[in-house]
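We close this part of the discussion by returning to an individual protein. Part of our work consisted of pairing the sequence of a single chain with a tokenised description of its backbone. The amino acid sequence and the backbone structure tokens for this protein are reproduced below.
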Amino acid sequence: MNVISDIEKALGQLSDRKFQKVLWQSIFIAIALLLLSFFGITGLLNWLIPETITLPWLGELAVHGGLLSIASLITIFVLSFLMFPVATLIIGLFLEEISDAVEARYYPNLPAVKRQDLMPAMLDAFQFVGILILANIVALIAYVVVPIFALFIFWALNGYLMGREYFQLVAARRMGMKQASVLRKKYFSQIWIAGILVAIPLSIPIVNIIVPILGIAVFTHQFHRLNDRIRPSN
């Protein structure tokens, strides 16, 4: 299965210095943002939660410490799952660096591509993360209705979203957005399967941080493989 080969190549390059640079930069920024969020939220809760509450027949009860501890644990749990969208947002800004590293190693004879301006890249990254978060919030309904299939729905949904976004952006670097869209639609099922396989580690907190880098690398390989199929021979 060719997509397995794409994933193996991407995994084999995770130790690449350029990959490591992007990964550690993204982890550092993501952790810094989440820590700021954690201390900001817990600070707000510390201010909002009363020291004591008065209940009929029980009188005055000290609740501040217990409620704050519970709220802090919930905050940590939620923020751990936000590591992926935050890392996705940051790593999305380095998409060209990751694709360049893949092409330099496996496709060295390709011509250089025109660098994308930072602002469009930022807008693309914010838009994708917004769609990612919104789609997963809506999917919570499906998780409740059919909990036995929740994990498979999660993989299928995020695999579709990552395949659509990353393949399109990677392909657009080489052929423009319009042709990239045509190629993506032509090989929709293969791209979705690749996305699902890449999405599986998303269900593991912390490990999910590497998924955006892995996804960009996988779809860079897949783009070149699929594009070679339709490229006319001389």
Notes: The first helix runs from residue 2 to 12. Strands lie at 52-55, 59-62. The helical segments are 2-12, 17-48, 64-92, 95-106, 118-145, 150-186, 188-199, 211-230. Residues 2-13+84-230 form one domain.
